[in-house]
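Dear colleagues,

As part of the handover before I leave the project, I'm documenting each prediction I ran so the next person doesn't have to rerun anything. This entry is a single chain, and its sequence is reproduced below.
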Amino acid sequence: MTSIRNVASRIGRQRLGLALLVLTTVAFACITTCSKFAYAGGSNPQTLLLLRFVAFATGASLIQRLRGRRLACRRSMLGPILGIALFQLMLSGGYLGAVAFIPVGLAVILLYTSPFFVALASILLRRDRMTVLKGVTMLMAFAGVFAAVGPSFAELDPRGLLAGLTAAAGLVLMITVGGSWMQREDPITLNIYATLVLILPIAGLLAWTGSLHLPLAGPGLLGAIGATSFFLFGTLCWVLSMRLVAPIRMAVILNLEMPITILLGTVVLGERLTALQLTGAALVIAAVMALTFLGRQPRDGAAGR
């Protein structure tokens, strides 16, 4: 009877983790559409980056207080806090840098090479195991992302390629190494302090370069508020899911962000989808469905065990 309860509890945790992760992908996909409105209103990626970190530090701290959790920072947490701050900077800064030098589609493809590196790192760290199903779904998901964004390889600036790979490395490190830290410490608290570490240098850089541009009214303001709010919500769901979803599965499910972004672009921004993009989106969805519904063994649950 105890064994049955343990299995049921583990399956329940998996389902909660998958639900949180799906909410994460939806929220992160909404950021792209909202950001376009913010940029049209005069803002820029650096400003939105600062707003997101400030919003997360403030909102997550309030949530912790409402939960009755203390924001105590022990000496043993300093390493993980600095590490997560570095991973966040690599992920966000690397992606923004890639977009500045190479086509957005290519930057996204570089970012979503991360499932392969997540699989390798997770296996080496003994946090997960590779199966045929996972390998096939990762290949399907990556092929779908490649088709969905339809990149142009006419411009291959080495700076953009390096920045894109840096973003992918940041995502890998956040899921694997950062995820292992969040198994031992409260994930929200760790990320609050990590964002606090980043706020001051980013604000100083914006002040030094005079590149702080806040949209003050209209759709630009609504876009900035939306992008910031979705980042707060999505990041909270993401860090909470890290205790519940195995790393390889998480890396693949995050690919759902791409077809959702394409759908939002069609509905909200009036962008047209090509047959190749529709095929790519279908491949991503099929890969995620296969991973979540065909591979739901209890041992593939929390912490990758």
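The CA atoms of residues 201 and 207 lie 10 Å apart. The mean pLDDT is 78.

All the best with the project,
I.
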